[in-house]
Amino acid sequence: MQRVLFLGIGIVGCLLNTRPTTVQAQSASTAVTAGTPQKDTLPVLNLPQCIEIALQNNITVRQGQLQVQSSNLQLKQSKFNQLPTINGFASQGFSAGRNINPGTNQFVDVAVRSNNLQLSGSMPIFQGYQLRNLIRQNQTIVQATEKELAATENNVILNVIQQYLNVLTGAEQLNVARRQAETSRLQVDRTQRLVNAGSAPEANLYEIKATLANDELAIVNAQNTVDLAKLALLQAMNQPGGQPFEIEYIKLPDPRIEGYEVSALQVYESALATQPQVLAADLRTQSAKIGIDVAKAGLYPRLTLSGNLSTLYSTVGLQRFIADGTTNVNSTSALVTLGGVTQPVTISTTSPGGYNETYRFFEQLSNNLNRGVSLNLNIPIFTNRQYRTNVTNAVIQQQNAQLTADNTRLQLRQQIETAYTNLLAASNRYRATEASVASLERAFQASESRFNAGAINAVDYSLAKLRLDNARAQLVQAKYDYVFRTKILDFYQNKPLSFN
Question: Is 263 within a domain?
Answer without folding.
Answer: yes
